[in-house]
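hey so i finally got around to running the thing on that chain from the lab meeting. sorry it took forever, my laptop kept dying and i had to restart like 3 times. anyway pasting the input first so we r on the same page abt which one it is
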Amino acid sequence: MRYLHLTADEPRPLPPVVFVHGLMGYSFSWRHNLEFFARQREVCAVDLLGMGHSDRPETNAADFGLEAAACRLLQLLHSLGRSQVDLVATSHGGAVAMLAASMDRTSPKPIIRRLALVAPAHPFMPETHVQLASFLAPFGKMFSNGLASCAAAVQTHAMGLMYSHQTRMTLDTRAGYAVNYGDARSYEYVQEVMRRWRADMRQLEAALPSIASMPVLLLWGADDETVSAVSGLQLRKCFDHAEFVVLPKVGHLPYEEDPLAFNRCLLQFLG
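ok and heres what got predicted. didnt touch it at all, straight out
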């Protein structure tokens, strides 16, 4: 697993912040946020196995289920050599982070201090809201049949589902995400995630009580059509004191569409 690592300009005695991307994202997703937090804290942004610039093993050679992904994330957190970390995760990465936090709580010395979840995938979201994954999954077979030329059109439509205002998608944004959308193995990864979706969500629901007391931020974009903010209200009930914030005029990627508001909100929560 590859990750970006930024050291603090003016370090403070606070844990590192580790960012975990969503289903078709990678560390690039946090390009508007990393340097802001690196002014005062150590920062890492992960490329989960099978995405971005991490290794992309065949689906029959690696386990891409939620539990395996959570275990790999925990191993990476421990490899940083810090006693505590703050974890920021979005979409499918949010589900990975919640399960990782649940596993972490069984340790004599838990490492995850705070959990910030940005429109996370969760057990209470209607399956009709899993639009992005449902749209992308069938394209794996098309790409394997040599139809990679449709990558740009697929990317445009998929990102249109995630952005509230498509005019905010720059050429640099499109080029950055082409790392995933232009690779057939990304769609095979999505297919594998979707194949296990229901079982993984049942496992996550069973794990949620173990992290009920954690300091948690639930942050949504008001115009999110991928994982609706309304569905997040049910997730909020699983935590004792979760902060619930909805940013206006942004969709599924508030850290990209309104990074200033997102950074301020996250900074306030992390302390």
